[in-house]
Amino acid sequence: MADEKPEVISVIDSVEGKNLKIEIIQYNKMLGSDSTSTSTELFYRESTGLKLKQVRIFLNNGQVMTEAGALHFMKGNITIENKSGGIGGLASKMVSSMLTRETAFKPIYSGKGEIYLEPTFGHYLLLGLDNEEIIVDKGMFHCCETSIEVSAAMQKNISSGLAGGEGWFQTKLKGSGLCILTSPVPESELIKYTLNNEKLQVDGNFALIRMGNIEFSVEKSTKSLFGTLTSGEGLLQTFKGTGEVWLAPTLAAYKRVGQV
Q1: Each residue of 222-258: pLDDT tens digit?
Q2: Which of 41, 172, 206, 224 has its CA 20 to 30 A from that of 141?
Q3: How many CB atoms within 10 Å of residue 220?
Q4: Out of 81-85, 135-139, 189-193, which region has the weakest mean confidence (pLDDT)?
Q5: Model-level pTM?
């Protein structure tokens, strides 16, 4: 009896809503290249655990909104539209786009069928919001149900805007429904802290998500300016309140490796 062939495509994560289902599929083995250099690159990627991934969405008379240009292919009775909201809405979208690194026009897919978004060797986060608001790093938004509003969130104090490392604006998602975010690291490497009227301080820009009643600011690492200068720590991203903060501690290490 012949050995069974290994499964080439597998579902590594999924979440289901009222009128849609979202899956993250993974290509476990890529064997189709006729280029030696490409095959060598793929070998090294696979030997380090990097797998090609893709978002697959099943619509059942539902709607989903994605970043512009994210579509790879689709099948079924699905229509695509862009809602600009008139001149005022268009201006608002353009400004939000410049501030958050998200595209100004996010197409809405409606109907019944399957949608595949562009594949990547990167990573995804699947979240379900329940009348909530979350703030995420610029450029992380990938797709969501149309019941979620995507906009720009301005930093609430001067210290976070000038010295926080995130700029004056981040991306805000608000409402109820499913959403997919891109992540610079696998979800398994994230540390998700729940704060209960507490303070969390971070030396660097690796806090990806915050939700709940969390205030973001920048503080000196010590009470005195001299202490801050001599401690070697400088300024710290500071999160205070009640809610959640998601950290990517391995992000800095990946960046250092990429610069070697």
Answers
A1: 554 444 443 445 788 899 999 999 999 999 898 888 6
A2: 41
A3: 17
A4: 81-85
A5: 0.81
Q: Is the dihedral of CA 144, 147, 152, 155 positive or negative?
A: negative
| H or E segment to which residue 88 belongs | helix 86-100
The enclosing H or E element of 41 equals helix 36-47
Residue 185 CA to its chain's centroid (Å): 10
- The structure tokens listed for 200 are 């969390």
| Per-residue H/E/C for 182-203 | EECCCHHHCEEEEEEEEEEEEC
Q: Rounded to 5, what percent of the chain is helix, strand, coil?
A: 20, 50, 30
| Nearest-angstrom CA–CA distance, 226 and 213 | 32
Q: Quick one: tokens of 211? A: 């939700």
Question: Of residues 88 and 240, which shows the higher confidence score?
Answer: 240
- CA-based nearest residue to 53, from 2, 126, 107: 126
Position 73, amino acid: F
Q: Quick check: 187 and 164 in contact, CB under 8 A?
A: no
Task: Report the distance separating Cα 25 and Cα 64, nearest Å.
Answer: 18
pLDDT tens column, 23-36 = 999 999 887 778 88
- What's at 50, amino acid-wise? L
Q: Closest by alpha carbon to 179, among 85, 74, 49, 64?
A: 64
**Could you tell me how far CA 22 lies from the centroid of its own chain?**
15
d(CA 64, CA 22): 10
Q: Which residues have CB under 8 Å from 230's CB, separation 6+?
A: none
Tokens 């008379």 label which residue? 61
Q: Of the candidates 186, 97, 95, 171, which has an alpha carbon nearest to the alpha carbon of residue 134?
A: 171
Q: At 81, which helix (H) or strand (E)?
A: strand 71-81
Please tell me the distance from the alpha carbon of residue 169 to that of residue 85, in angstroms, as a whole number.
Answer: 22
